[in-house]
Fold:
Amino acid sequence: MIVVVCGQHRSGSTLTWQVAHELLTSAQSESAQSVSAPLSTPRENLQLHALDPVDVRMVKVHFSPAMKKKDFPQRGARYIYTYRDPRDVAASLIRKGRYQPGHEKRGVEGVTAMIHRELRGDAFWRTRETLWIGRYEELAQDVPALVRSLAEFLSVPVDEDSVRRISDFVSVDRQRERVADVRDFGVDPSLRITSNHITDGQEGAWRATLTSEEVTAIEVTAADWMRAHGYVCETLPPQP
Structure:
């Protein structure tokens, strides 16, 4: 079986990865399964891993236009997808990359390209049959509920002691410690934390990062999707 963590960029996919990894490895001792989480798995090998009834292979990937649906199997696969306000996706990517005004990834063209990719990815992943979907603004505010929900999706029994343990394991304070560790020891495949992992996870932080032109460009690009998912477009007239 494969478990594919495939959320939008900067939407809590590392958080869901860590929770899923903790759940699966804690259940490992109670089953015949083994759990592996290498830094990379060639897409051409996913079908083979998916059909293995004994081993669980965890895969973390973000959408790119080069991806093909046939590379991501339905049988033997479970997909974990997260999404977020596209304005915060763009703003967090900008902060992570430290892109200043004038950079090619800034401005109307830069953020429009970012959001086009995320919307294509959204449509791509939602075609998967065994799919868990989480909204960043909700899962980040209630990590114990996230743990319970993923445990149910992955068919892993979990008690409240385990919920508390895993919630503490993925807390912001623990993540900040891991960011510091990455600088000294490199990336741990089981954690997937990078040295610039944490920027600002607050909802609405885009207001302090994006220019008014960038906000408008994102809302024009993603208006239908935003409204369908409960996000308010602030620079566009409300729909009648």
Q: What stands out?
A: The domain at 2-228 is CATH 3.40.50.300 (Rossmann fold). The mean pLDDT is 90.
